[in-house]
Amino acid sequence: MSSEYQRRSFSNGNLDLSYVEWGSSESPPMVLLHGLQDCARSWDVFSRAMSGEYRVISLDSRGHGCSDFPVSSGLGSGYRFVDYVSDITALIDNLGLEEPILVGHSAGGRYAFSYASLNPQNVRALVVVDIDPDSVNQSSSGMFDRYMNESDEWPSLDKVVERIRSRQHASSETMLNHQAEVMTKPAGNEGIRVWRRDRRVIEDYERPDLWKEWVSIAVPTVIIRGRQSDLLTHQTAVQMREKLSGSLLAELEGGGHWFYQESPGAFESTVRWFLSTLRN
To answer: In the CATH scheme, what is the homologous superfamily, with its name and number, of domain 2-135+200-277?
Structure first.
């Protein structure tokens, strides 16, 4: 996979933010936004699949992957919700992207649809993957408890694979190994791995109520939910579709919250179906 993308960066204020780019710069742009603790290369399988038709740009969110970790200041930790949304603005402005398709998973989905609600003229369409607009999510709270109580270090890559398997039971061994490799980095010479993220992204995470932003979205939107997800429930997904006129909902068998990694073929097909509706 590594030979088919280019790693580049841009600045937002005093931060250098990293992204990986697939496909031709002449193709229509598609921006991918990962979830908390993941990274730009978590999207590699989907990025490669779409790179024949799109200029696929996958961002390492601040404090993740190869992007800078902000330093706390009088303006806050640097991990406010508005900071993440500002990174989308900076990415689109710095790269001169014209009406990109935004694809966001989990926290990345919240940043994506918040940006789209404020800047409909800048967005062609929106793909929201397994996330809700609520300020409180019981399943998400349980995940945070686990994140806060686990170490940043793992004794081996195999242990990272086990950890990722515990969250996405339907992923292939190839996918699990890939995610383990790109989401961690070596630490020392004894096989130890550490997360490629700042622990403060968990400690300072903000989850505002975003229903006002959700109902104001004015671009074509699809919600994609894995039926085995307990984070975005069926009831909330239906409520999202009903409250946003014209939006579409796809609930799919074969995975849960990390559906795009657990059933990448079905995820790709669903996104392609949605994009085909834009031409009708």
So the answer is: Alpha/Beta hydrolase fold, catalytic domain (3.40.50.1820)
